[in-house]
Write a structure and sequence with these properties.
It contains eight helices and seven strands; from the N terminus they run H-H-E-H-E-E-H-E-H-E-H-H-E-E-H. By secondary structure, the chain is α+β, with helices and mostly antiparallel strands. 32% of the residues are buried. Bound molecules: zinc ion. The site of zinc ion has 5 residues, from strand 5.
Length: 237
């Protein structure tokens, strides 16, 4: 009986030691994970979480999923739409103007600040394809998204449904061009209502201080590239 009792104690002690060792391994694993996520770095640098600044603004980051034009998930550790404060203030202003003109309507942000590591991933995934014409070359300094000064945006109605803009966001082709809208309506490619919807988006965004991009109805820059290079810091991580 005594022998059995001692054996039992021994098993319990050995088992206990194993659990303690397991815990040690796990905590060592945690200690190695010191690298900050993109969300954490952007927050630390003072970039603004748009949805926090104005909860009426909707966010659905297209590069955090694989149903974008690259077919790949490009954002790892980034789940929020971040912008430099100067651009964030303008998005807030644009949302307020939109709410006044069309109660219940909301801006839907599809992409905002894009760190250079993501820009490189995006460029590499389309190099050698037609998509490459639409992605700023990181070797040439990237674009305004890489400063948190550009936004890809559309509008949703009170039910959360995206307005018809003639093409989806990130449509690769001349139909996305803002100078061809009259032609696209008269040729029957898009409806007059879709043209009105694009005009509504441009109106609220430009009145709030953004500049449209000719080739992409959904893309807006807060400043010129020259000004960004002079006055702002690129997201080199
Ligand atoms: Zn864009």
């Amino acid at each position: 009986m005594r022998k059995i009792f001692i054996a039992l104690i021994a098993i319990l002690l050995t088992g206990g030691a194993c659990v303690a060792q397991g815990k040690k391994v796990r905590s060592a694993g945690r200690a190695q994970q010191t690298e900050k996520t993109l969300d954490e770095r952007l927050k630390e640098l003072g970039y603004v979480d748009i949805a926090e600044l104005n909860p009426e603004v909707k966010v659905s980051l297209m590069y955090a999923r694989d149903d974008n034009f690259t077919g790949k998930v490009l954002y790892d550790g980034m789940s929020r739409a971040w912008l430099h404060a100067d651009a964030a203030k303008s998005v807030d202003k644009a949302q307020k103007a939109l709410s006044k003109l069309k109660p219940g309507y909301a801006l839907l942000i599809k992409d905002a600040a894009r760190p250079m590591s993501v820009q490189r991933k995006m460029f590499n995934s389309v190099v050698g394809t037609t998509g490459a014409n639409y992605v700023a070359n990181p070797a040439k300094g990237g674009g305004l998204h890489n400063y948190g000064l550009a936004v890809d945006v559309t509008i949703v109605d009170a039910e959360g449904k995206e307005l018809d803009m003639g093409t989806p966001v990130d449509h690769l082709g001349p139909e996305a061009n803002i100078t061809r809208e009259d032609q696209l309506v008269s040729s029957g490619y898009m409806t007059a209502q879709a043209r009105e919807n694009r005009r509504l988006l441009r109106r609220v965004m430009t009145e709030a201080g953004f500049m449209p991009l000719r080739s992409e109805w959904w893309h807006f820059n807060r400043v010129s590239k020259a000004e960004a290079r002079q006055r702002y810091k690129r997201l080199d991580f």
